[in-house]
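Help needed: design a sequence for this.
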């Protein structure tokens, strides 16, 4: 099967249709959907609590801070942790993608 050179549009379309590559795409989508859902729920929880549980968020915890302030700060920590987890996950997916494309490149030669 002659698909042209590695990097050509028809070669990438062929690789994209491979079941192994589709599995990598599914894994990436599953991780991103879960991470996005978690973060959106966590993010929107601040607005829900600020409307319905103001006294809870206003509870002092020391040094002039309250639970609401700490919750806002925790969102920065959560997004950094999610980014770190994604980078670790993406490096594994990059390796799987590299294996699939190298295997196909070997079949092309």
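Sure. Designed sequence:
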């Amino acid at each position: 099967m002659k698909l042209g050179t590695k990097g050509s549009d028809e070669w990438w379309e062929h690789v994209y249709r491979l079941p192994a590559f589709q599995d990598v795409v599914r894994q990436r989508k599953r991780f991103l959907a879960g991470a996005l859902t978690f973060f959106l729920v966590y993010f929107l929880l601040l607005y829900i609590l600020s409307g319905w549980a103001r006294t809870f968020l206003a509870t002092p915890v020391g040094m002039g801070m309250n639970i609401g302030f700490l919750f806002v700060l925790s969102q920065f920590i959560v997004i950094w942790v999610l980014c770190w987890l994604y980078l670790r996950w993406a490096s594994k997916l990059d390796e799987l993608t590299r294996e699939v494309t190298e295997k196909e490149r070997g079949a092309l030669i």
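The first strand starts at residue 60 and ends at 62.
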